[in-house]
Amino acid sequence: MGSERATKLPLNEQDFQQQIMPKPKPSGWLWLSGITFTIVVAAFGYLLSKAPGFDHVGPLACAIVIAVLYRQFFGYPEKLRAGIQFSSKRLLRFAIILYGLKLNIDIVFHQGLGLLARDVGVIVFAILFTIWLGKLLKAESSLILLLGVGTGVCGAAAIAAVSPIIKAKDEDTAIGVGIVALMGTIFSITYTILRPFLPLSAIQYGIWSGISLHEIAHVALAGAPAGPDGLAIALLAKLGRVLLLIPLCFILMYWVKRKSAGSAGDTRIEFPWFLIGFILMSLFGSYVLGKSIPVSKTAMDGVANATTFILTSAMVGLGLNVSLRDLRTKAARPLMAMLITSVILSVITYFIA
């Protein structure tokens, strides 16, 4: 017994020292290298999204796939963790702020108020029905809520905005973005195939696409066959859902705070300051750019592309947290729940378009 204690004590002492000793802070070079790593993978995601078959999926999902595969074959690059986490958190919030430029509040208020009521109904149905299905299928509740928000509002951007509010795991956020991208791509392509056979006018088809599809990119893809008028009304309907992301986030903050009020753990909720930036950028883009400050379409397209690239870099950081072994068991039920929700949502909105 004495020999056992002699061999065990040094190990226990070493473990104890590792726990109490502060971890060394990464050097600025490693921090910068981690950010650069996510940018390089994001660039590969962009290249992959240009390939046939992947061109409808989008760079965000492609970058997540590359990051997940890298993790499985090479492991998590621990030395670069600080920079990678900076991308997955700070760059993510910065991208959400820039995303506000895509929301022209002035157009929504003057031309899209009639669509807002349907947008509210879509968001409420998508979230509540997805949560109900998730409970029925015994799926991960946090991931299910993210998928409901992504389906109802605006895909990856909505998931990224809501994730820190509900304190979702990075893995759940990455899986949610991937599922939304996959499902939205399938449905938008299906819409374009069905378009010639549907007894809908260009405006009706545009409204249907705008109030039911997941991402702005999906709406643009599906709405294009309806012509310029159909596409314009589709994007307008979608912008109304993006606008509703703001009150939804504050509602979720209140819900999370109420839910955690009785728990003994940490009940603090970090205020999503990036949402204030989102609102300010929306107001700036709606009432200043193009009016007080003339800006060319080329410049605005450049900002939009930069926003997508920054968001893609952030998705790399999230994708590195995903384990394929866990994904097989964790994603199947949420995927089924979202598929059912998306199908029913498409059918319902078809009749109210």
Can you describe what's shown?
The protein is mainly alpha-helical and 353 residues long. 76% of the residues lie in helices and 0% in strands. The protein has 17 helices and no strands. It has helices spanning 2-20, 28-49, 59-74, 81-99, 105-111, 113-137, 141-152, 156-162, 170-194, 202-212, 216-223, 227-243, 245-260, 273-287, 297-319, 324-330, 332-352. The N and C termini lie far apart (78 Å). Mean pLDDT is 85; it is low at 1-22.
| Number of beta-strand segments | 0
Task: Give the biggest beta sheet.
Answer: none
The SSE order reads: HHHHHHHHHHHHHHHHH
Low-confidence runs of at least 5 consecutive residues: 1-22
Individual helix count: 17
Give the integer mean of the pLDDT values: 85
Kindly, what is the distance between the CA atoms of the first and last residues, rounded to a whole number of angstroms? 78 Å
Helical fraction? over 70%
The helix/strand class is: mainly alpha
Strand content: under 5%
Shape: globular
Rg, nearest Å: 22 Å
